[in-house]
Design a protein that fits this description.
This is U32 family peptidase. With 431 residues, this protein is α/β, with parallel strands linked by helices. The protein is 25% helix and 25% strand. The protein has three domains: 274 residues, Copper homeostasis (CutC) domain (TIM Barrel, Alpha-Beta Barrel), CATH 3.20.20; 34 residues, no CATH class; 83 residues, Translation factors (Elongation Factor Tu (Ef-tu), domain 3). It has an eight-stranded parallel barrel, surrounded by six helices.
């Protein structure tokens, strides 16, 4: 079933500016997949000053290669330097921004006002975007940052669709908003749970995701003998029974795939996907799907029809159930996950297409997760429709028959029922 978004039958009268699709890239490989699968820009982290210290992150050499690849394909590269800085964090910061500018980085994403000033002085021609960590929720704050030389403001996660419209009505500053990915339970991601529980500073890149741990609630009991109830420890009475779900602070994932028309009509210049810690399969699937929806709507908004296959495709990359978060009102308990998350279809990145021989219909595949003869696999890519087939035959590079591909990064050959291209992905559903 499809959903009709606008009245069909007449030529489009809307004059739409197609927004940028901004994708995460935790390492150089993910950057290349993001760009090839349709991102107009990617955001990466360097080896300091960013909020994802556990991501692969980029050396200067990686940045140089990534910038060259992105620019060759018409895409931009932004670097996140969005920590909340302490005094000792400023060592080497000016030189860092100067190097980023020399490497051709298109913009930096910054949250701390002091870091904004360092960047402006050290690399005055380097474009600055204000991070969502700065918690910008109103048009007057957006205007303030514009007067400080900020080229783009990444809005706080708590901003609604109506507030976005008001911000765009009062300002002439580029706006960026998240459309997909994990949500932090804390206000705009500003949290100290990780600091308290693990001594890892969440606001300087060390978040241990303490909010996603399993919790229980207890009541302190003053007199154990009077309580006459089972006590945990010395004076703690459990508030839930043994079979109750654990209490958690885990939000469902953000997903705005069906609301792209509203985001475009509201005038958001950049639509941002979260996930520098996510897999290549996640990045390729999510970017590819949003690319198709954005292009379809902007090409002919008056006759745009949302396809159910887009929703189904995006959920193949979801780790958790999804929500629209704050865009249409304050989230409720329905937007949280309590206890064990419901099961969702999960897929493995089984193989990457390296070559295809049209004469023999044989594809050369680089194995990424084990698959075997008889398995049902699905191929998808940026320039093709998905198709499903069974693995009927497998050979190694020397032509020897195989029953499975069970070695990491193993190069194998298999017959495919439709043409494929390099960088197409083969995946399989987890059983």
């Amino acid at each position: 079933m499809s959903t009709q978004i606008a009245t069909a039958g007449f030529p489009s009268k809307k004059q739409l500016k197609k927004p940028e699709l901004l994708a995460p890239a935790g390492n150089l490989e993910k950057l290349k997949f993001a760009v090839l699968y349709g991102a107009d820009a990617v955001y990466i982290g360097g080896q300091k000053f960013g909020l994802r210290s556990k991501a692969g992150n980029f050396s200067y050499d990686d940045m140089k290669e990534g910038v060259a690849f992105a620019h060759q394909h018409g895409a931009k590269v932004f670097v996140a330097a969005n920590i909340i800085a302490h005094n000792e964090d400023f060592d080497g910061m000016a030189e860092y921004f100067q190097t980023l500018y020399q490497l051709g980085i298109d913009a930096v994403i910054v949250a701390d006002p002091a870091i904004v000033e360092v960047c402006k002085q050290a690399a005055p021609k380097l474009e600055i975007h204000l991070s969502t960590q700065a918690s910008t929720t109103n048009w007057q704050a957006v205007q303030f940052w514009a007067e400080e030389g900020i080229a783009r403001v990444v809005l706080a996660r708590e901003v609604s669709m109506e507030e976005i419209r008001q911000i765009k009505a009062h300002t002439d500053v580029e706006i960026e908003a998240f459309i997909h990915g994990a949500m932090c339970i804390s206000y705009s991601g500003r949290c100290v749970l990780s600091n308290h529980m693990t001594n890892r500073d969440a606001n300087r890149g060390g978040c241990a995701q303490s909010c996603r741990w399993k919790y229980d609630l207890f009541e302190e009991v003053e007199d154990e003998e009077e309580a006459a109830l089972p006590i945990i420890g010395k004076k703690e009475l459990p508030l839930f029974s043994e079979n109750d779900d654990e209490f958690t602070m885990s939000s469902k994932d953000l997903c705005m795939i069906e609301s792209i028309p509203e985001m475009v009509d509201a005038g958001v210049e950049s639509l941002k996907i979260e996930g520098r810690m996510k897999t290549v399969h996640y990045v390729a699937t999510v970017v590819n799907t949003y690319r198709r929806v954005i292009d379809a709507y902007c090409e002919n908004p008056d006759e745009f029809v949302f396809k159910d296959e887009w929703r189904e495709e995006i959920l193949k990359a979801a780790n958790r159930p999804v929500t629209t978060a704050f865009f249409y009102g304050n989230p409720s308990e329905q937007d949280q996950i309590f206890g064990v998350p419901p099961k969702m279809a999960k897929y493995d990145f089984a193989g990457l297409v390296l070559e295809y021989d049209a004469a023999t219909q044989i594809a050369t595949i680089e194995q990424r997760n084990r698959f075997e003869v008889g398995a049902e696999v699905e191929f998808f890519g940026p320039k093709r429709d998905n198709f499903v087939q069974q693995v009927t035959e497998l050979w190694d590079e020397d032509g020897n028959q195989l029953t499975d591909a069970n070695k990491a990064m193993q190069i194998v050959k298999m017959r495919v029922c439709q043409p494929v291209c390099p960088y197409d992905i083969m995946r399989k559903e987890k059983k």
